[in-house]
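Figure 2 data, in text form.
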Amino acid sequence: MNNIREEGGSGDMLDTLVIGGGQAGLAIGHYLKRQGRRFLILDANPRIGDAWRQRWDTLRLFTPAKYDGLPGMRFPGDGLSFPTKDELADYLEAYAATFALPVRTGTRVEKLWREQGRYVAVSDGKRWEAGNVVVATGCTQAPRLPDFATDLAPSTVQLHSSEYRNPDQLRAGRVLVVGLGNSGAEIALEVSRTHHTVVAGKPGGELPVRHGRAAARFVLPVVRFVGLHVLTLDSPIGRKAAPLKLGHADPLIRTKSKDLAAAGVERVPRVTGVQDGLPVVAGRPLDDVSNVIWCTGYRESFDWIAMPVFDGDGRPRQHRGVALDKPGLFFLGEEFMYSAASATLPGVCRDARYVAGKIPAVVSPVKAVARG
């Protein structure tokens, strides 16, 4: 007997199911509510905003507050300040409450498929059916780790950047930070205050001005415009930039190479393997490493979507968030989904507005057949 039961309110089929209740899911929810659709947002976290609360303690946004609001509600406070991750998390929670968005937390979708002209999602014995689905789970779902990470000595403390909170998690001794993107640079700088720190990797460039209020006023507006309107998949320069952005670390924005050098952080080439339980750098084991923090980014993780809608790299086949292979299926919040800014708050808002305009008209209520 099938024990899956129907969920979603009255038992009628939903117009749209949104999977993911972060900034992308809430932004599209705002537009769906304005359109008068019957929809539901499912989020795996216990509380709205938890994806941000769970990041390291001192994390601040790189974009100023004036660019961090979602549709219809500005981000509170000084527009030239850079909010903490907890301030953003609380803003997202307040946003959902202000617009009375239907968010069901603590619900991780285990499988999504299409049958008889509708989409079906299941989680923990519950089932939802919808005419349209927006996948808004973002691009930080599955940490990327090298296969050889498991070969490090058992005594070595290993953390991915998604697990790192503060230096108190680390053992006494040397810390190796692997990856020199923005997360790697900021974590390395913080850890260097309490531990001998080494960072492995090469940055993908640097913002050529000091990050701060002046940059928020004069420089970041230009960066935002280029990321939203110039580096898009509809432009030759954007199509050329996309694989570079997807395959390399972003330019360092706040913490630069000179900041790391001034803090005494040692720079070494990339880690290529493990020998005798130690990370290998430049062909030789790196001695006395007690801790490794992997700032190696994330990989696509859509194994719960049981439909052939992905390319050879595991990325959705889509244009501006509209799936090419399945009608009524949409994506939001992915890296370079349409532009270089697609995974940022400004990009998510623009993409959500576009996707909302492409979702088919409200389906006629169809009684969903309960299984079980």
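Caption note: Residues 1-6, 363-372 have pLDDT under 50 and may be disordered.
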